[in-house]
Specification:
The complex is a heterodimer of chains A (332) and B (282). Chain A has 332 residues and is an all-alpha fold. In chain A, 36% of the residues lie in helices and 2% in strands. Chain A has two domains: 154 residues, Cytochrome Bc1 Complex, Chain D, domain 2, CATH 1.10.760.10; 144 residues, Cytochrome c-like domain (Cytochrome Bc1 Complex, Chain D, domain 2, Orthogonal Bundle), CATH 1.10.760. The radius of gyration of chain A is 21 Å and the shape is globular. Chain B has one domain. In chain B, strands 3, 4, 5, 8, 10, 11, 12, 13, 14 and 16 form a ten-stranded mixed sheet that branches. In chain B, strands 1, 2, 9, 15 and 17 form a five-stranded mixed sheet that branches. Chain B has a two-stranded antiparallel ribbon with strand order 6-7. Classes of the chains: A mainly alpha (332), B alpha+beta (282).
């Protein structure tokens, strides 16, 4: 059994060396790919064009801010500096930049799930007054007038005459689709390539018992919109903005916990600066809000009971979700 | 083995060639024109748009409130024709990064856009048309698409609750208390503005998600004969007055600034009775 795992591991490593990095691959323990890939075949040049666009402030009104300003690779494409994130003209946004990783497997996007297709995510940021405050129409004009972009687009999409928004959005999707984070220590553990320490194992056991009913599956989210007892009154109504249902007020998408130790601050508005503050919320500060998710109540009382030692083990486990290969991948 | 493969390939090619020939021989075109009108005292009046901000009110809603319109635009998709003798034609929807086939944007300010020419319609007689007002779900699920769905240029795209507006109407009513800003023809100084951006494409069981797309069917009063050399012309009517006085009363003092699926439902539910078949000529 053990020998088998080693052999398999070796074989895998050998094949990995020759794997084309510009192909979207689903680890077999991940959920299905949600993106309709047949309509947007990923190529090296398309990925590189998307990456260039992602890092280019040309997407914003005054050419000052790029996607990568608030989605920084070193911290799994989140914003380490601000809570919430700051957009154009120093405008403070209302929400915390979510991680851009494993987008190919997500059914809905943004904290409120208002977007159901990855292609439409960048156009939201481009046109949002607090983010890039630009129009997609104007970005397209700037791209067509640029000395470099028409050639780059033509290389990826040979049948294209002029650059239009759908081509730009498909290229950005090609880049984001390949940002797959599946090389953490936990992934190695799942594949039988590494063992967890006793603290990490204890943390995993705790996690399964106390967290995994919402942070479920290989991506650590059930994609539900839930009230986790942060507030009684809401500055940001969250999911209700999209669903127009009063009972969805203050509900936000359960976020993935992959790379969680890199992606501070925490919560939809980035109110907690450290992982311990976030965990302490669940231990001590969950408010008994009308829409509070019932899983956050124990014997009728809000909150999850965890001892200090259990918290240490839990954090040890959460550290295994950090994917250093992902944030240091030179291609990304 | 190879022989069998080649044979079957040949057979396939031969059959498909045969099929193409049949269609080419016996296919024609048909025009579907959408005439936007205002029916007043049972008389159809050609719709006339006004300059934004105009206080010249020609129309009234179901409760006598005057209004005028600056803009009228809507999507038609998924057209299907059927005939009494089994003739059938489905205008296939195929959207991709370059184009959006089978989806049409009717725009009162661009009259040429109001005639849809369907080509390669099998020869035969047709007396029924079905279509969806709005973008069929299949047009949203492919993501960013070109042509009339280009989210940068169509001016019918919601970026925050992603999907397409089915019907977009903007204008003025003297009884409106305004507050309609940031639209194509209205801004914060438009004191009497009315805006109906009616969208919403998904029904989610047990939730407030509303699909405001409407699938409609109409019978013709005579058969439209399609064959090579003939191009029948069908006139469909949209009566804008009926949009504001159908089963739901649209009150310009209250529900006059619509930008969410749920808010657009009353007007959307008036859509089926606002469309009608008018006439066709051969």
């Amino acid at each position: 059994m053990f020998v088998g795992a080693i052999i398999l591991g070796c074989q895998k490593e050998n094949t990995e060396e020759v794997l084309d990095p510009y192909v979207l691959r689903r680890p077999d323990y991940f959920p299905e790919i949600t993106y309709p890939i047949s309509g947007n075949q990923i190529s090296k040049s398309g990925f590189e064009l998307g990456k260039k666009l992602f890092n280019d402030p040309i997407l914003s009104l005054d050419n000052s801010i790029a996607c990568s300003n608030c989605h920084v690779k070193a911290v799994a494409f989140t914003d380490p500096q601000h809570n919430p994130s700051v957009g154009i003209f120093e405008r403070e946004g209302s929400r915390n930049s979510p991680m851009i990783a494993n987008m190919a497997f997500q059914p809905e996007f943004l904290w409120d799930g208002g977007i159901t297709h990855l292609d439409f995510v960048p156009i939201f940021a481009i046109e949002n007054e607090k983010e890039m405050a630009e129009t997609a129409e104007s970005v397209v004009r700037k791209l067509n007038a640029s000395p470099i972009y028409p050639t780059l687009f033509k290389k990826t999409f040979p049948s294209l005459d002029t650059i239009t928004a759908p081509y730009m959005l498909k290229a950005l999707s090609q880049y984001m689709l390949l940002l797959v984070s599946d090389q953490s220590k936990y992934d190695q553990f799942l594949r039988g390539e590494a063992n967890l320490s006793s603290e990490e194992t204890a943390g995993l056991t705790l996690f399964k018992a106390k967290c995994a009913s919402c942070h479920s599956g290989a991506l650590f989210t059930n994609y539900a919109f839930l009230d986790n007892g942060l507030d009684v009154t809401h500055k940001d109504i969250g999911r209700a903005l999209i669903s127009a249902r009063a009972e969805d007020t203050g509900k936000f998408k359960v976020p993935s916990l992959r790379n969680i130790l890199l992606t501070a601050p925490y919560m939809h508005d980035g109110r907690f600066k450290t992982i311990n503050e976030a965990i302490d919320h669940y231990r001590f500060h969950v408010k008994d809000t009308p829409n509070l998710d019932t899983r956050l109540k124990t014997n009728g009382k809000p909150g999850i009971s965890l001892t200090d030692e259990e918290v240490e083990n839990l954090v040890s486990f959460l550290k295994t979700l950090t994917d250093y290969k992902f944030i240091s991948n030179p291609i990304f | 083995m190879n022989k069998i493969l080649i044979m079957s390939l040949l057979a396939l090619i031969i059959t498909s060639c045969g099929k193409d020939e049949v269609i080419e021989k016996g296919a024609g075109s048909i025009d579907i024109e959408f005439d936007n009108v205002a029916v007043i005292n049972n008389i159809q009046n050609q719709l006339s748009l006004v300059t934004p901000g105009s206080t010249n009110y020609t129309y009234t809603n179901g409760i006598g409130q005057p209004f005028n319109l600056n803009l009228l635009r809507y999507y038609i998709s998924g057209i299907k024709l059927e005939g009494p003798n089994g003739a059938s034609f489905t205008d296939e929807i195929k959207v991709d990064v370059a184009a959006s086939k089978g989806i049409y944007l009717i725009d009162e300010s661009k009259l040429a856009a109001n005639i849809i020419t369907l080509e390669n319609v099998p020869a035969g007689e047709y007396n029924k048309i079905s279509f969806t007002v709005g973008v069929d779900t299949s047009g949203v699920k492919e993501g960013a698409s070109g042509g009339v769905l280009d989210p940068a240029t169509c001016k019918m795209f919601w970026n925050w609750n992603s999907g397409y507006i089915a019907v977009k109407i903007e204008g003025q009513s003297p009884v409106s208390n305004g507050g309609v800003g940031g639209t194509e023809t209205l801004n914060s100084s438009s004191v009497n503005g009315i805006a109906y951006h009616v969208g919403g494409w998904r029904n989610v069981e047990g939730s407030a998600f509303v699909n405001n797309n409407k699938s409609l069917s109409f019978n013709f009063d005579t058969n439209a004969k399609v064959e090579k050399g003939l191009e029948p012309h069908v006139h469909m009517i949209l009566d804008v007055i009926s949009l504001f006085k159908g089963q739901n009363i649209i009150d310009f003092t209250g529900n006059h600034n619509v930008h969410k699926p749920i808010d657009g439902k009353p007007l959307a539910d008036n859509i089926p009775n606002a469309f009608s078949f008018d006439h066709l000529h051969q």
